[in-house]
Amino acid sequence: MKPATESGTKPAIARDTGTAGSRAGLRRLTGLGPVVALVLLCIAGGLLNPDFATFDNMMNVLTRTAFIGIIAVGMTFVIVSGGIDLSVGSMAALIAGTMIVAMNALAAGAHPPSAPVIIALGIALALAFGAVFGIAHGLLVSRGRIEPFIVTLGTLGLFRAVLTWLADGGALNLDFTLSETYGPVYYQSVLGVPIPVWVFAFVAIAGAVVLNRTAYGQHVQAIGSNEQVARYAAIRVDRVKVLTYLLLGVCVAIATVLYVPRLGSATPTTGILWELEAIAAVVVGGTSLRGGAGRVMGTVVGAILLSVIGNILNLTSIISVHLNPAVQGVVIIAVAYLQRGRR
Length: 343
Fold this sequence. Notes:
Blueprint: H1 12-31, H2 33-48, H3 55-80, H4 88-107, H5 115-142, H6 148-166, E1 172-173, H7 176-182, H8 184-187, E2 189-190, E3 193-194, H9 195-213, H10 215-225, H11 227-232, H12 237-263, E4 265-266, H13 274-284, H14 296-316, H15 324-338
Antiparallel strand pairs: 1-4, 2-3
């Protein structure tokens, strides 16, 4: 009897290798989808309005993307691990309000420190609050065994209610002198690129390295893929979950630190729908809502893509700019539909 190879039939191993190669190629093509969509959108935007393709407009888009993009990087870790956080917008609002109240109190003291010192203390306070909120979420989800949807839905209302109480239903405004000193953090540029864009780039690169090149990142993906198997593999699941929500809390704090000097105030509407935009950026970037795998750079592309959509709407008035959140909602539903059954 002739071997299978001599009769013209490919061995099973060769067939399996070919199938695996085809699947890998399909995954690569799927990963390019957001990039292709972004390129096509930019071409369309330039054709619809010449002002879209200017350098100043591009920097404006990237600067406005920075806040949501930084949060979306942290959200990528949470979603990859199989979780979700619906409170990031309210968390950012409360952190902003707390920063302003604390810095104003220091400035109004009998012997106030210099403005840069006060601002540095405010930034440290913001990072501390972000870390504490993230740890609280992680502990409630991991040790408390409460679904992340329920935990963060509850804190969404809690955070915004506390801010509304602090502001007495109005606005918390940063001291004028502090605002003058703090303003360059948002408005200043380095080598022609605004500071928030540099920070966004640093956070994105660091996030990509951590997710893809460290044991912690592999553990996050393993937990999202199959938490029970991860426990059998001796992965400290509870610890990884706490660290994941801690990372997201710090990302929210960083975004808030960049956002406060933009307007120098915090109101009960600050951060409204940021959670929608962050989740949309993650899923548009190719991360499955079921968890298990994701790409930080895909999230970056997704965040920029959504900002470009909003910018095109602003410049062209194809539809009302008030419908931008509706567009993002449709995008989330459409991508989730396309991802059905994917793990």
